[in-house]
């Protein structure tokens, strides 16, 4: 359960006295999530989410994320609007840790996305890219292509522990990816972690995106590649081509991809699988070392996705552009 910091009634009241939100009516911890402590807060003024930022997010980067949320909300995208305190500040402090209040978003995430959810998620991602255009904040992608090889160096033994021979396969993938990685594609603010648990739907329609704490500047099509991996694979490890085509078509219904983006998508998806394989492998080792009570995500799910992308390079690509007119 992701509530690492407990808050007493007195602490909450002192904290809320800095805001114009009225008295608290409901305050309870939210089990979902891994990185931060999240609470549902209901006051006389409405429903909110109070987040206490734990060590997973670099505190000096919080203004980038909170200002981005404000920018997106101001540009019509359904993400949580941060609530400023009486001094106009979006970032506060609670129990000596950074904390913020954002608006509560209606809707529910789905565990097993259908083809239509994938289409809607694609459309929502393109909407996010359009709304993010012009955001003045800058944040380099510290988990981008250049970071992967150094990240893997200390993880080779862990990879071998999962599957003998895997370290050599990953090294070879990293070399191919370094050579094939696009140099120049349309760039902007990307979410970089728009997995199904970070998207809310209402009546099957994209309703909101949450959890922007990996947002950064990178290729827009790389964000779509991350989503293809996260949404469009079957539990048996195969790519659901119908779902993937629907996602690409949903994306293109708002923001058509350029020829260069379309051509790059298979290698971007291979790289996106590498990024999550590596972060999961790293988190796996750390969780074991620290006896963490939140179960880490399985890196081998992404090892299977890597294998799908590797095989596709040799055999005609992923065939992601099958829907009529797309
Ligand atoms: N603005 C919001 N409106 C409604 N519910 C929210 C909102 N933000 C977060 N939640 C709820 O809180 C849960 C945890 O949020 P989130 O996924 O951001 O957690 P985290 O620990 O910060 O991130 P991560 O999942 O990457 O570890 C979500 O699954 C969702 O149920
Ligand atoms: N979405 C990431 C977890 C970090 O948010 C993963 O599935 O590995």
From TrEMBL:
Presence of the UniProt keyword Membrane in the record: no
EC number(s) recorded for this UniProt protein: 2.7.1.39
EC class (word): transferase
GO MF terms, alphabetically ordered: ATP binding; homoserine kinase activity
Domain Aminoglycoside phosphotransferase: 27-257
GO biological process, one term: threonine biosynthetic process
Keyword Lipid metabolism: no
Record's catalysed reaction(s): L-homoserine + ATP = O-phospho-L-homoserine + ADP + H(+)
Biochemical pathway: Amino-acid biosynthesis; L-threonine biosynthesis; L-threonine from L-aspartate: step 4/5
Alphabetical keyword list: Amino-acid biosynthesis, ATP-binding, Kinase, Nucleotide-binding, Threonine biosynthesis, Transferase
CDD domains reported for this sequence: HomoserineK_II
The family this protein is said to belong to: Belongs to the pseudomonas-type ThrB family.
Protein name: Homoserine kinase
């Amino acid at each position: 359960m992701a509530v690492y910091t407990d808050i007493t009634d007195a602490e909450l009241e002192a904290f809320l006295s800095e805001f114009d939100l009225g008295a608290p009516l409901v305050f309870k911890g939210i089990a979902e999530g891994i990185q931060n402590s999240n609470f549902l807060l209901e006051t006389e003024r409405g429903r909110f989410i109070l987040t206490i930022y734990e060590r997973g997010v670099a505190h000096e980067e919080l203004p980038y994320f909170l200002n981005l949320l404000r920018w997106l909300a101001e540009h019509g995208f359904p993400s949580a609007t941060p609530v400023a305190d009486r001094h106009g500040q979006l970032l506060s402090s609670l129990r000596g840790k950074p904390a913020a209040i954002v608006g509560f978003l209606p809707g529910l995430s789905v565990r097993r996305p259908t083809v239509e959810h994938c289409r809607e998620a694609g459309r929502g991602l393109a909407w996010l890219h359009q709304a993010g255009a012009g955001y003045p904040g800058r944040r380099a992608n510290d988990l981008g292509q250049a970071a992967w090889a150094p990240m893997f160096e200390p993880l080779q033994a862990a990879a071998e522990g999962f599957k003998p021979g895997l370290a050599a396969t990953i090294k070879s993938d990293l070399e191919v990816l370094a050579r094939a990685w696009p140099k120049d594609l349309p760039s902007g603010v990307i979410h970089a972690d728009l997995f199904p648990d970070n998207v809310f739907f209402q009546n099957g329609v994209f309703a909101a995106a949450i959890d922007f704490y990996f947002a950064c500047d990178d290729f827009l099509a790389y964000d779509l590649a991350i989503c293809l991996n996260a949404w469009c694979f079957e539990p048996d490890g195969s790519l659901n081509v119908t779902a993937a085509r629907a996602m690409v078509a949903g994306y293109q219904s708002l923001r058509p991809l350029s020829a260069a983006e379309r051509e790059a998508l298979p290698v971007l998806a291979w790289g996106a699988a590498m990024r999550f394989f590596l972060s999961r492998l790293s988190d796996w080792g750390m969780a074991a070392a620290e006896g963490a009570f939140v179960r880490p995500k399985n890196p081998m799910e992404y090892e299977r996705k890597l294998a799908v992308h590797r095989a596709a390079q040799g055999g005609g690509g992923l065939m992601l552009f099958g829907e009529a007119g797309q």
